[in-house]
Specification:
302 residues, two-stranded antiparallel ribbon, 14 helices, Arc Repressor Mutant, subunit A
């Protein structure tokens, strides 16, 4: 993982306390501390968790666990201090908690970290998956004669390609800004505007560009469900059916596609910004509400 090669940002005592309260992260610290050095595959098997869950939690604990040149994980000084504290507790607390299979499946469906872990663990995957998702979205929208703006998908006749491109570009730009700004505001790290600029100034440009690219790549993947209605519109036109003529059914499909995208955006933000899923869901819902606000204000004027 490339993220572990960078110097992690210093965390507060409150954030460290939150980390060790999470049973999976506590189990990871205990497992790595017990082995000294351990690879990702062995660690995943030892804990009985999914690959996405493992990498997500490791990313959250970049101050406690680092990765060496052999791609094995070991505890940092802070991690060793917490490991000693945990092992000083009763032996019953040292058992590695394993998530039930049912809970793991439900978590993988509604919070699919497995979908975004390849984007953040491989530069090649991030550089390919994002543009590929964008190509699929553009193809389905154009074929279905639909436009997209934020989370709003609507049919247009005739289709203006310039207007289509502007709205799609605005979707990516506004989405990136909203997710970045709201994730920072919701993280609890925001104290003042000067503090925000200072944090931005202390971050390296290379790190900012890489993180922004990964977030945009993940955002492209999260928008894929919005192609559901345009895809059905293509089938309707080819097969000459009137499946989408039912307004209630069409609206239900739009809501379904938006709901799936919200969960995907939430998972992408949680992975990108190292946030709890509850907080990242708030960020995704903020984007959803703003999308509908824009839809309500602007679309009647089109």
């Amino acid at each position: 993982m490339s993220d572990f090669a960078e110097q992690p940002q210093k965390m507060s005592d409150e954030e460290l306390l939150w980390l060790v309260r999470h049973k999976v992260r506590r189990a990871i610290i205990l497992a790595v501390g017990e082995e000294g050095r351990i690879g990702a595959t062995a660690l995943k098997q030892k804990l009985g968790i999914s690959t996405g869950s493992l990498y997500y939690n490791l990313r959250q604990m970049s101050q406690l666990i680092t990765q060496d040149e052999r791609k094995t994980y070991r505890l940092t000084d802070d991690g060793l201090r917490i490991y000693k504290t945990l092992t000083a507790q009763s032996n019953s607390e040292q058992n590695f908690p394993k998530t039930s299979r049912t809970a793991e499946i439900i978590s993988s469906i509604f919070f699919p970290m497995w979908l975004f872990s390849p984007i953040y663990e491989s530069k090649v995957v991030a550089s390919v998956l994002g543009p590929l998702s964008l190509f699929v979205i553009v193809f389905v929208l154009l074929a279905g004669r639909h436009e997209i703006f934020m989370l709003n998908v609507f049919p247009v006749y005739p289709l203006n390609h310039l207007d289509f491109a502007l709205k799609l570009g605005a979707t990516y730009l506004i989405g990136f800004l909203i997710l970045s700004i709201f994730s920072y505001l919701f993280s609890g790290k925001f104290r003042s505007t000067s503090t925000a600029f200072k944090t931005l100034k202390n971050s390296s440009k290379r790190e900012i560009i890489a993180e922004s690219g990964r977030l945009l790549s993940a955002f492209s993947v999260a928008l894929l469900p919005l192609g559901l209605v345009p895809g059905i519109a293509v089938v309707d036109r080819v097969v000459q059916t009137s499946f989408l003529s039912n307004i209630l059914l069409r609206d239900a499909l739009v809501v379904l596609s938006q709901s799936i995208s919200i969960f995907l955006i939430s998972a992408a933000v949680a992975y990108a910004k190292k946030m709890r899923w509850q907080t990242s869901m708030g960020v995704a819902l903020a984007f959803f509400y703003l999308s509908h606000l824009v839809n309500y204000v602007t679309l009647p004027q089109v």
